[in-house]
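Folded chain entry
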Amino acid sequence: MFRRRFSAVMVFATLTLVYFVAGKLGLKLAFLQASASPVWPPAGIALGALLVLGYRTWPAIFVGAFLVNISTTGNIPTSVAIGAGNTLEAICGAWLVNRFAGGMRVFDHSQNVFKFGFAAVMSTVISPTIGVTSLALAGFADWARYGAVWVTWWLGDATGDLIFAPVVILWAIAPPPRWSSKKALEVGLLLLLLVALGEAVFGGWFRVNATNYPIAFICGPVVIWMAFRLSQRETATGIFIVSAIAIWGTLRNFGPFVMETQNQSLLILQSFTAVLTITAMALAAGMAERREAEATLENQKSLVESADRTKDKFLAMLSHELRTPLTPVVLALETLQKQWPQNEEARSTLEMIRRNIAVESHLIDDLLDLTRISKGKLELSLATLDAHVQVCNVVEMCRAEAEAKKLRLQVNLRAIDHHIAADEARFQQIIWNLLKNAFKFSRQAGKVMISSTNESPQQLTISVQDEGIGIAPDVIERIFDPFEQGERSLKERFGGLGLGLAICKSLTQAHGASLIAKSDGINRGATFSLAIRTVSPAQNAAGSKRQPQLSARTFRILLVDDHADTCAVLQKLLEARGHKVTATHDMHSALDTAERDHFDLIISDVGLPDGNGTELMKRLRAASRIRGIAISGFGSNADREKSLAAGFSEHLVKPITIERLEVAIQTVLTS
C-alpha cells in the first residue's frame, strides 16, 4: 500500500513539474498577452497524461496550470480560473477521444486520427473562453482585444493537442523499438534528412529563407515517406522535431511563415504544422492498418496452405486406406466369377458386387481428381485419337450397367470429322462420367442416347441425352459446381458426391473444349454437349493401336504386402497362373528372403510397417538387377515418379485386377 501511494505521489509530482516547465517555456512565446501563447505544449501533455494514466491525474494538471499562471500574473482568482479551464479542457478532450476515437489506440486507425483532430479542436474552446474571460474581468486583458487573445489561446491549445499529445501517447503505450540494423539505418537517415530539410527551410542556410518564399512544401515528401515506411510513433516524433526547428527559425525571422508580428508568424506556422500532423498521422495509421492486414492475410494464407497440405495428406491416406481393402475383394471376385460361370444367381450376385466396387473406386478417384484439378496439378498426355472409337469403348464398359437398369442405350455417331487431340484416359473419363450421370438420373427402362455431329468446321460435338428427371432452371447454372446435385431430396434419392460433372467440366477445359448442359425443366430430361476441336487423322493414332501380344512365361516372384488378405489372394492367383511366388509382409523379411533365393521380379506395396517399398527397391537394385512393380493406394503423379525413381518399372494403383497385374508382369519382364 505504501509503495502504491509513493508511486502515485511520484507520478503526480512528475506530471506537475513537467506541466509547469512546459508551461513556462510556452509563455515565453506569449507576445500578444502574457497568458496567451500560440505554442502551448502543456495542452498536449495534459491530454496525453489523462489518456495514458486515467482521469485520476487531473489534480496534477490543475496544480501545474495554477503554478504556471500564479507565477505569471500573481493573481490567485484568475490563476484558479485558468487552472480549472485547462483541467476541464483536458478532461473533456480525453473523454471525447475515449468515447469516439479509440482511447489510447487512437492512432491505430486513420479514421480515428481525424476524430482525434476534431476532439482536439472542439475541446480546446473551453480553456480560452474561461481564461480570457477571467483575465478581462480582472483587468489583465483588454476587452477590445478579446477576440485576438482568444484565437491565439485556442490555436495554441489545439496545436498543442495535435502535435504533442501523439508523442506523449505513442511513446508511453508502445514498447521500446526493436529495429534491425537496416531499419535503424533507415530511421537515422530519415531523421537526419528531416533535420537537414528543416534547417534548410527554417534555419537561414539559404537566401530564400530570408525572402520568405513558400518552400515549406519540400518537407512534405520526407514526412510522407516517414508515414509510409515507419510507425506512427516515429512519424509523430519527426513532426515534433520539424515543429521545434520551424518555431526556432520563425522566431529568428527565417522561413516562409514570417509575418508582421511574431504572434502572427507563430499562428500561421502552428496552423501549417497542425494540418501536416493530421495528414501524416492519418497516413501512418493507414499504412499500419495495411501492414496489419497484410500480416493477417499472410498468416491466414499460411494457415490455409497448412490446412490444404493436411487435406491433401488426409485424402491421399484416405485413398490408400480405402483402396487397399478393395484389392483382395476384386481379386477374390475374379476367382469366384471363374469358378461359378454357369450359376446364374451367383453370376448376378457377383456382377452386383463388381459394379459396387467399381463405384467405390470411382468415388475415390473423383475426390483425388478434384484435388489435383483445384491445385493445377492435372497433367495431360495428348495424342491423336479417334473419338468414335473411344466413345464405343466407353459404351461397352457401361453397357452392363445400362442393361441392369433396363435402359435403351442408343449410339448415333454421325460426325464425319471425328479425330481429336486428347488424353485418352481423361477423354474416356469425360464420356464415362456423362454416361454414368445419364444412367443415374434416368428412370427405369428409359432411353439414353449418345451422338456426334460436326456442327461447324473443325469441331466435333458429342452429346449425351437422357429422358430422366431433368434440371431445374435455377440449378442448371451451377450444375458443374463441385458437390452440386440440385435439391436435397435428389441427393438423398440418388446418392453420390456430386463430383462427376465438376470433374468433366475441368477436364474439358483442360483440353481447350467446352461442355454445356441444357434441359427444358424438371422431368423433361437433359442434354450434355461436349464441343472439341478436331485434328487431321494421324497414323497409328492412339485410338486404333493394338495391344502387343504378350508371352505367357512364368517367373519367380517375391511378393511383399503388409495387408494379409491382399497378399494371400494375390499369391494364390499368381500361383494359379504358373508363377512361383514367395510372400513376405515387411521390408526386413523381404531383404532376408531376397538374399537366400533368386527372384525375377518383386511386387511390393509402397507402404510397409518397417519402411517403404521404394527403400526396399533401392536396396535390392543395389545388390542385383531385379525388376519391380509397385502397388499402392497412392496414385498421384508424384507417387508414380517416386516409384520409378526408386527402380520400379511400373506403379499400379489399387484396387488392381489379376489381368492388369499379369499384363504389367509380362511387359516388365519381356521388354
